Amino acid sequence: MIVRPGGAFVVLIALATSASAEPAGGEGQPAPTASTAPAPTGTVAKAQPASDPATSSEAAPPKRFDWEPFGYLRMQYIAVQDDPLSVFVGRNDGFELQNARFGIRGTLLDRAAFVVAIEGAVDARRQVNTPRGRMEVRLKDAFVDTHVSSQIDVRAGFFESLVDPNIEGDTVREFVDRPLESRGMRATEGFETSGLTPGRSLGAAIRLQPVAPASGAAVGFEVAVQNGADEYASNNDNNLPAASASALLLLPAGGWMVASARFNRRTVGDVQALKNEDDLQGTIGARIIAGPVAFGAAAAFVRTTYPTTGGPVQNAYGAHGQLTYTIPARTPVTLGYRFGILDPSSLLLTDRVMEHTVGAAISVPAYSMRLQLQATHVVEQRELSNGRVQLAAEVAL
Amino acid sequence: MKLGLVLAALALCACDGAPRARAQVIGTLGDTIGGPHAIGREGDFLLENDEIRLIVADTGRTSDPKQIQVYGRANTTFGGTLVDADLKRDGVGGRGNDQLAELLPGFLFTVIDPLRVEITKRGDDGGPAEVTVTGTGGDLLQMVALLNTGLMFPSTLSFENKYRLYPGKRYVEIETTVKNGPMGAHPFPYLDPTQLDDLLGRNIPGVSSIQLSVPMGQLPLLGGEQELFAPGVAGFNVKYAIEDSYRMAGGFPSFPGLAVDFLASKGEGVSYGLTILDNPYNYVSTYKAGYPGQDLTPFSMLIPFTYAGVAGVFMAKPPAQLAPNESFSFTSYFVIGDGDVASVADVIYELRRQPVGTFGGKVVDERTGAPVARANVFVLDGRLLPVNQIETDADGTFIATLPEGQYSYRVLADERESTAVQAFRIQADRTTGVFVTMKPHANVVVDVIDELGRHAPAKITLVATFDTANVGKDPRTFLFSLPFGERRRPTAFDGRNLYIEGAWWTKDGRVDARVRPGTYDIVVSRGPEYEVTTKRITVTAGGFVAEQLQLERAFSTDGWVSGDFHIHANPSTDSGVTVEQRVISCAAEGLEVAVATDHNYITDYAPAIAASGLDPWLLGIPGMELTTFEMGHFIGYPLKIDPGSTRGGEFQWAYLPPGKLFAQLRDLAVDKGSGLVQVAHPRQQVLGYFAQFYIDAATAEPYVPSGILGVFAPYGDEFSAENVSYDFDVIELMTGRKREWNHTYTAPSPLPPGPFPNPQPVPGQVVVGPDGRPTYPGTIETWFSLLDRGHVATGVGASDTHHLLGDEPGYARTLLYVGKGKDTPGGFTRDDVVTAIREHRAITTTAPFVEMTIGNAMIGDTIVAQGGGVDVRVRVRAPTWGAVNHLVIYANSVVVADQMIPAGQGTDYETMVRVPLARDSWIVAEVEGPTNMFPVSTPVELPPLDATVIIQALSAGLDLSSLPVTAKLKPDQLHTSTPYAITNPIWVDVDGNGWGAPKQALPRIAPPSRSRPDVRDAFDALPELSP
Questions:
Q1: What domains appear along chain B, each with residue ranges and CATH number?
Q2: Contact: A87, B544; criterion CB under 8 Å
Q3: What's the predicted TM-score (pTM) here?
Q4: What pLDDT is stored for residue B122 in this prediction?
Q5: Where are the alpha helices (H) located in chain A, listed in sequence order?
């Protein structure tokens, strides 16, 4: 097993967490406070000596193969306004399991590292805008990073690229749910629509993983080729892969900036009548931390063209900005406000959604637990009343 | 290393990727296609490429040429036809989606009686694969043998049909050949009309003045799930567009009918099409003057009829004559699409090498932005007529190719307002895309409980109103569009402005339905034993309404259960209702017994009943409707299922006399001793046993038709009068809502405008023909005659339902007495049902419950009642929506009581009638009422298209006014659904020496009589014309 790291290793692990959202607190480390876990996602810890370097000569040689489990549970109670017109909005208040994540990560000498994780709380809906669905267990991460140089890895497997600019893990996110541009609108909470960022996909990437700087900035990048298919597709239902390029800037104190571009020629329709739709996408995100104050923002833009069927170009955009303040204590309390906006289609004149969210999070690091409470006022262009209140609890391994 | 390279090279060579076609004899059922109408089996011929799969049936002949096995398996008489077709799909054999019933060449009504089916090209050279069928001519319908023989004279011809499949193509090329024999020239038509008239001596009025032609083509049976489409005026309204085309017919030599550029269909996951290329022998192009006002193209084909899923598609005109050994060939193309018309049309445009552009886009909900799946994007021509239909996929996207030109489009979905018409232009090799938003649908959520609080099966109907200015108009003109494939919305048809927006048959009283926004009455029902519960709601676009409603029982039928013994689902060629939908619909209509009676297919409802959780509510009995083309339809039950048979059992239906058909049904029964044989719709023209055998209503014996009736009488020996068999157990007294077949037709008062053929009808009296017999004899009068002559067949009511809304199961139905206290869910068995029928404890009804007793005797009993008369007690109960007002009691066919029921007692009436009896008698009670049972049972408001239309079409120009089916004075087929019930008899033995029939017993075998005219014999007797 990997030796329990000291404080320095916490940062390293935080940098080295798996795709999308499982940074330190989510992967076997004590749950960090919001301000201590600025974790760029999608990296895996390289094997590092866990003890003091000064005594390294006395340390045992690195194991050929090391691994450790990680995981977390998140559950929320959600209450959504009952819209008087839409039967599928607001009639399903109650408890929801947001995450039941379990995985292992490990290293093979100093040549490679891997992450395999499953999610036991995938909300699989039968169709659009229906409250009916099933909770399913699905693969979440399954990839290997091979170190080709001291900083450059080749990643292969099922992973999430940096195109989603909201790279904080589930266990460090200040708010109960992900920002609007990544999450979209879930069934029962409004008119269901997907987020604008891609999910996980099979593929490969070359990555330069920067080391968190004490001052200044460190630059990294990721160039990825992925299937671009549905997140849980067993195979590639696209005829061509999606390609993306991302630049990552790590800032002191856990801040970061990321910008990405992606092109995905999606294949849609039934096998007997397949069609292509081209997504050209740009995303940008940042997190700046100044003491107890953290500012985060991200934006995503997707331009979709229809080479097979023709038709007007569809533009979609979404963004959020948030400001949080953390009161340091044994049980830190974070207060925050988030504004989100999502316009899924320029072809529909009435589909823009805006959210104003206020929330609070209380961390109990000693038990790797957090409690979160938030209230969201949703401003729909369409006639819809769907504000919501959420209370979430989280515990991590 | 070298070995590895060699192996790799071999592997690469073996996988060159080029598409292939192949033909093979099917060795195992795993090689077959599968699907709702799949009947391919070992020994048939499989044609497949990388896109599609097709099966050609074998000849059906064994080494003994007299032994033909194929009858009963294919839908038409002979083998060698295309029976299965589907896209190539993933998975192993049997998992396909074949919805094709059959496709066969038609030379007017001559089809190929195959001598040989063989693979003539295997396709292993990278070229096409080919299966060839060769044979002689056979009659598809004996009834039109006069025309067929006179025009074709097939006995001196040989026929060949090649099914040719190319690699990578979604069509099969069909090359059809007619070859003359060596004996002499063969003209087309073989005889001219005057020769026909003179030589056959029929004196058909008008026949000598017409010139005829011989159309040849294909006869597709595309299956009940498939909706026919033809671009232009027809759209999805092919049936009625054909009828409309008759009014524009230019006259012979061109046969009347609808000229179409191509024929296509729409279905669930698969669609079909038929087309030709530009050629010099095009039938329609040859006779352009015969089709004034119709859109003609170089590819036009003629559809003179479509009936029971069979369409006649004629495309070729043979030369004026064939020299000895000369042949004539024509080519057509059968296309397979993926469910919409557009996927068929894409292939057709490619075949024709027409320059095309692409039209595509996406359809989303205006409010939610969610994709609208399965919406129909109609492409319209300059007159806004539909020329193509594209279905959106799950993502709301659609795509199709179109020839260059200016078009419009309009999007329709049943639960939404259709979009406005938008214009667009197609340029060759260019893509035109659109983004379409549709208004939101509304949701109606209904939860029904019965009087005991149970979530029982129930029907939920939404009734709406239309503008009163449209009252009296044909609903097709303002309420829904058949050309655009909109579902029918039945109206009250009684002067009120009510119509049904939709209806849902539920297994548990729950529905969450998408509907168009509007104000509706939710009407909840569960058959005649319940009243309707109504609640008015208004739903807005994107909104919903949720209601819980409770059923209220109208009356109880202690000891009696409700059954329907004539029901179709999609194992029948002409039904698109799944078995699951069917059993749920039966339970929701309050039926407790459902006999599966698919056409030539033994179906068992039990698995679907169990899977739907309806075991407590519905008993399924396996059965079959043995379906002949011209002899009638006969139902057998309970039958055993043969899982090894593609039809659930092995049987024949062609060229057998009735007695052998009945014997077959008894052999197929679970218990040969107790199996029942039921005569279906006995008085229906062409499809009814009594009609086809000319059973005299007064004597219950057959007679030989004279005059023009004889011309349209089947000629086969099996139709001879001496072959009539009375070896049946059950007669349908009322089938569906066709009240007009119940009783012998009497002339209305006043008479409609004439003139009428002699003898002149008299208002209020039975309409008779020249022979003095009733022109439209009633089923019930015939049944009475059978009873009078001692033949006791149980009278039943059945729905003959093929669909759902507008053709509901259970109307009519039969109430059976199974024993006091046993009419509870699960309280009776199949044997109880069979016993009740055998004991004649049955009531035919559309809603009323009529109990008739004499003392302690009930329906079906025989009693001794010496003393000159009996007191007949009748009690009638009915729901308020089926109230009655008239009671008639019959004894030995004579009306012995005729009472009007007071208005306040139409739902619960009891009376005692003293019936004096001088001799042994049977007594039957009958009730009826004027109440429109809408919306529980819908009216017949659109004219049914039946086989008589074919005869009318093919006889245009002839004076057939004396033929019942074409006469001016005939029963009204369009009417509301009204309450009606009739009991089976109580037999009264007056003299105490056992019951004796009041009239002479029917002969076991009908007396030999003058044989029917056989037009073939007439031709043979003409030396100057015989080869």
A1: 21-225+309-335 (no CATH), 355-438 (2.60.40.1120), 442-550 (2.60.40.1120)
A2: yes
A3: 0.87
A4: 96
A5: 7-15, 180-183
